[in-house]
Write a structure and sequence with these properties.
alpha+beta; cell membrane; ATP binding; ATP-binding; elongated; Rossmann fold; transmembrane; nucleotide-binding; 7-stranded mixed sheet; Calcium-transporting ATPase, cytoplasmic transduction domain A; 6-stranded antiparallel sheet; Alpha-Beta Plaits
Length: 739
């Protein structure tokens, strides 16, 4: 069954209860495998079987509960930003109108509240506010009510409407004979609308900043390109560029697409993609990437990756998906949000009844005031925004630092890591090994043939040591081989017309019973000098594999490794190196880098066994690697971190990908995760504490003790700023030191 994954904008959501409703209806739609809703960026991601359900059906199902799933348009960060800007402008206009009306109503209430004319004027102005700028809340509440739903708009609509309608009834009945103007709540109704609109405007401004990382990434890609035609060069919109088009990129311009240089040469700043500050020389035949900066010379490229298919496009897509995912810590908030509004409505009714039972009809004003205040003060928004806003900011900040996080769950788990397991080649070392020493055990007449076979087999392998061996072989010739088999941890095997060939490590050869006594001294010497040894074996007399060639490869330890490991130790994290190299080579790197321990001569399965051993007792384990032989451990670890220049399979199974060789990114992302979870906990505490504190106070808990009763307008102000506080707290994650 083939499934599709799409991200769609959702319109009409205003609180956690809304997102819970949309998510529930999607998950209960036949044909939908997985679904999630992100209130912070107003999107829903859906994995569904197109043969069982189509996007129009999904849209109809969501519309049935009062919201709109925009399946007619895929989620676009730029389009979302335009909508948010438009929404912020609309909210600002509504707030200004409501604030002017509410302030005027309050002034008239105080200055002319004892006269019938003054009271009528206050009622008219308040009505214009409640049913003018405030119509937004009534419309959404009515739409949900038709489908049996309720959300924050319901609470705002009820609190403002009840205050206004009750005051209107009192004015019609008593007119100017009503003893105190304070028994009328026209100004409170208007202030409720004004304060909530103020909060919504500030919230929309703050939420727009949470997606700043994606905007920055997309801003690296120019909107136009210079296409080379027979008649000359013309400037065209990026959307018009197709794969195979020839493009000119002038000095100082950013590359519009991924491509291959076919003429000219220049240095290109690729820090937006790789994080490496040093410009890279690009000549004929080399790849270039969209969003990178051409520095010195003009280059002509052939387009091969455009828009979403470029490396930059895939990075943006991964960040979008990660920001839309849910962290496990959000589950509690979702469960509470699902029942929050009905519970608050119930508390408001109980409050009204309790006041009337305690004081009789004479307490009607206080009873109604308390019930309205409960409706105005309750805030489900903070619950819904507590986790996703923090995750969005953190994932975006990581992306700007060339660290790509697959999902929110991985970011949460990264903060709980207590042990980090690291591969050696390409992870702790530069990943640019070279053949430093050679020991032949074959006649000189055979050495050319062996070089060709070695180059042929390594060209079919996918291992960090393949490229340096091919370079050392220094031959363009390739041999005819068959029965090629590449096994992670055991090297590569093949047959040629003359012999069977096996290229492997000394450990693998020993495990298969190959006698290495004749080369034991050379092995010891190579390892003493810190070489990684690769054996070339051929079938000899009796079909037994015999060593014909020893290659000693060297690879420098990354300059960032020692500092990174020191920072990990400072965070209380245990560091362990797992490698397929022999133990002497491993011990040398452990000592040089400052790791807690290191273990060599390990197969991929043994690395996974080590990981399982470390996880016993509930310890969170992170695996860092870059090769095919690390993929098992990366997939099984609580958090897998892949080096961005490693094998594709390693990056596909990893939780986090480092698009930089700087190992300081490891403690940095783990530290960012810890900071993120601290902010999430603060947000959740505030969201729960705020409601647990203010709802009882609004209901009148302080009245029997000190005669204090919360005014609905101040309750609305508190409610407005509760969600803004959560978003602003999350935005703190966007600041601080980079890697």
């Amino acid at each position: 069954m083939a499934t599709e994954r799409h991200i769609y904008p959702v319109e009409g959501m205003s609180c956690a209860a809304c997102s819970a409703s949309v998510e529930s209806v999607l998950l209960h739609t036949p044909g939908v495998e997985q679904a999630g809703v992100n209130l912070a960026n107003a999107t829903a991601w859906v994995v569904f079987d197109p043969s069982a359900v189509d996007p129009d059906t999904l849209r109809q199902r969501v519309r049935a509960v009062g919201f709109d799933l925009r399946t007619d348009q895929e989620y676009s960060p730029l389009a979302m930003q335009r909508r948010r800007s438009q929404e912020a402008r609309q909210m600002l206009r509504r707030f200004i109108a409501a604030a002017i009306g509410a302030a005027l109503a309050m002034w008239l209430q105080m200055q002319m509240g004892h006269s019938l004319g003054g009271r009528i004027a206050v009622a008219v102005i308040a009505g214009l506010v409640v049913f003018g700028p405030g119509w937004l809340f009534h419309r959404k509440a009515f739409a949900l009510l038709r489908h049996g739903g309720a959300n924050m708009d319901t609470l705002v609509s009820l609190s403002a409407t009840i205050s206004f309608v009750y005051s209107l009834c009192m004015l019609i009945r008593y007119g100017s004979t009503l003893a105190s103007p304070h028994s009328l709540y026209f100004d409170s109704a208007a202030m409720i609308v004004a304060f909530i609109l103020l909060g919504k405007w500030l919230e929309s401004l703050a939420k727009a900043k949470t997606s700043g990382a994606i905007e920055q990434l997309m801003g690296y890609q120019p909107n136009t390109a210079h296409r080379v035609e027979d008649a000359g060069v013309e400037e065209v919109a990026l959307e018009q560029v197709q794969v195979g088009d020839r493009l000119l990129v002038r000095p100082g311009e950013r590359l519009p697409v991924d491509g291959e240089v076919y003429e000219g040469q220049s240095t290109v700043d690729e820090s937006t993609i790789t994080g490496e500050p040093e410009p890279v020389l690009k000549v004929h035949g080399e790849h270039v990437y969209a969003g990178t900066m051409n520095q010195q010379g003009a280059i002509y490229i052939t387009a091969c990756g455009i828009g979403a298919e470029s490396v930059l496009g895939r990075i943006v897509r991964q960040v979008e998906e990660a920001q839309g995912s849910k962290a496990p810590v959000q589950a509690l908030a979702d469960r509470v949000a699902a029942v929050f509004v009905p519970v608050v409505l119930g508390i408001a009714i109980i409050t009204l009844a309790a006041w009337l039972l305690a004081g009789g009809v004479g307490m009607w004003n206080q009873a109604l005031l308390a019930a309205v205040t409960v409706l105005a003060v309750a805030c489900p928004c903070a619950l819904g925004l507590a986790t996703p806003t923090a995750m969005m900011v953190a994932i975006g900040r990581a992306a700007k630092s060339n660290v790509l996080v697959k999902d929110a769950q991985g970011l949460q788990l990264a903060g709980e890591v207590r042990t980090v397991l690291l591969d050696k080649t390409g992870t702790l070392t530069e990943g640019h090994p070279m053949v430093a020493e050679v020991a032949w055990h074959a006649p000189e007449a055979e050495q050319g043939r062996i070089r060709t076979l070695a180059a042929t087999l390594e060209g079919l392998a996918n291992h960090p040591l393949s490229e340096p061996i091919i370079t050392w072989a220094a031959t363009d010739s390739r041999a005819a081989v068959q029965d090629v088999e590449s096994i992670p941890g055991y090297g590569i095997f093949a047959r040629s017309a003359e012999t069977s060939v096996w290229i492997c490590s000394p450990r693998a050869a020993k495990e298969k019973g190959v006698g290495l006594e004749a080369i034991s001294k050379e092995l010891d010497d190579f390892e003493e000098r810190g070489r990684t040894v690769v054996l070339y074996l051929e079938s000899g007399s009796g079909g037994r594999m015999e060593p014909r060639l020893l290659l000693g490869l060297s690879d420098r330890v990354k300059t960032s490794a020692k500092e990174a490991m020191a920072r990990l130790r400072g965070m209380g994290i245990h560091t362990v190196m797992l490698s397929g190299d022999r133990q002497r080579s491993v011990d040398r790197v452990v000592q040089e880098v400052g790791l807690d321990e290191g273990h060599g001569e390990l197969l991929p399965q043994q690395k996974e066994d080590w990981l399982a051993q470390e996880r016993r007792g509930g310890v969170r384990v992170c695996m860092v690697g870059d090769g095919v032989n690390d993929s098992q451990a990366l997939a099984r670890a609580d958090v897998g971190i892949a080096m961005g220049k490693g094998a594709d399979v390693a990056m596909s199974v990893a939780t986090i990908t480092l698009a930089t060789d700087n190992l300081a990114a490891i403690p940095w992302i783990l530290s960012l995760s810890r900071s993120t979870m601290r902010i999430v906990r603060e947000n959740l505490f505030w969201a729960f504490f705020y409601n647990l504190l203010t709802i009882p106070v609004a209901a009148g808990a302080l009245y029997p003790l000190w005669g204090i009763q919360f005014d609905p307008m101040y309750a609305a102000l508190a409610m407005a700023f509760s969600s803004v506080t959560v978003v602003l707290n999350s935005l703190r994650l966007g600041h601080g030191k980079g890697i």
